[in-house]
Amino acid sequence: MEGRRLSRVEARRADLRFPFPENFAARLTGARIERMGRRAKYLAADLDTGDCLIMHLGMTGRFTIGGRQQGKFHHDAGPPERHEHVVFGLDDGGRIGYSDPRRFGFMDLWPLADIENYPAFRAMGPEPMSNRFSGAWLREAFRGRRTPVKAALLDQSMVAGLGNIYVCEALWRAGISPKRLAGSVSAPKAEALAAAVREVIAEAIEAGGSSISDFAATDGSLGYFQHRFSVYDREGEACGRCGGGVKRLVQSGRSTFYCGACQR
DNA sequence: GCTTGGACCTGATTGC
DNA sequence: TGCAATCAGGTCCAAG
Prior knowledge:
The chain is an alpha+beta fold and about 260 residues long. The chain folds into two domains: about 5-115, N-terminal domain of MutM-like DNA repair proteins, CATH 3.20.190.10; about 135-260, Helicase, Ruva Protein, domain 3 (Orthogonal Bundle). Helix content is about 20%, strand content about 25%. The strands form three sheets. It has a four-stranded antiparallel β-sheet. The protein has a four-stranded antiparallel β-sheet with strand order 2-3-4-8, with no helix packed on it. β6 (about 85-90) and β7 (about 95-100) form a beta hairpin. The longest helix has 20 residues, at about 185-205. The mean pLDDT is about 95. The protein binds a DNA duplex (16 and 16 nucleotides) through α5.
C-alpha cells in the first residue's frame, strides 16, 4: 500500500469494535499512503492528507491482498469473505480487503502531527526489539508491582506488543513462573526474561507468525511458529526442558501455559 | 493508584 | 444429529 493512492474505500458497516470515525471513507478516498508503519500491534498508515490511518486486527482481523497490481502482487482474491468489512481499492488496481469475524479489530483516524498523543500510544512501553527495552527496564517497570508477572507482561505499558502466546513462551524460556509477582523478579531473571522476549519475537517473525486458526499472511499463507510452541496449548504434554508436565491455569481471564517443575 | 473481571462478537470444538 | 457450554490470539472500562 505504501506509495499508492486509495482510489476507493468501502466500509460495509458502521463499526468494528468501535464506530468508524466520521466520514471515514470520504476522508480516505484519494489519499496517498506515504508510509506504512507499526507501533506494537497497531498498523499505522501515514497519509498525505495529514491524517494517520490506525488499524488493529484484534484477534481475528485479517488483511488479504487481491486484484491485479502492476507491481508484485498478483494473488488470487479467492472466494468472497463472509466477514469482509472494509475494502481499499488502490490506484494501481490492487485490492486490500479487511475481514474480521469477531470484530475485535478497529480502524481510526488521528492527526499525524499529534500521533504521539493517540490514546493507545501515549502510555505505551518500549518495543521489545528496541534499545529502550532491556532487563533493567523490565525490573524498573515491575518494581513494587503485586500483579503476577504474566499479567504484567501483557500490560502494554510495560512492553509494547506482546500477546498471550508470546508471553507464555518467553516466561518458559526464562524459567520464570507466570504466578511469580512481577515485583519479585530478580535482576538476573529480568535480564533472562528480556532476552527470552526478544528471542521469541524474532523466531516467530522468522517463522511467519503463529497460525492457530485465523492468522494468515496477506497472500493467505500460514505461519509456522505454532509448531515450535514449548508450552502454549500443550497442556498435559512433557516439558521439553525437564520432562515435567505442562500445566494450564487462568490468570485475569486468560489461559496461561507453563511447566510447574522448572519455571520458578 | 493498582488490580481484577466482565464485556465486546462470532465460530469452532467438545460433551451430553 | 442436535443442542448447549466452553474456549479463542486483544483491549477497554467499571468495580473492588
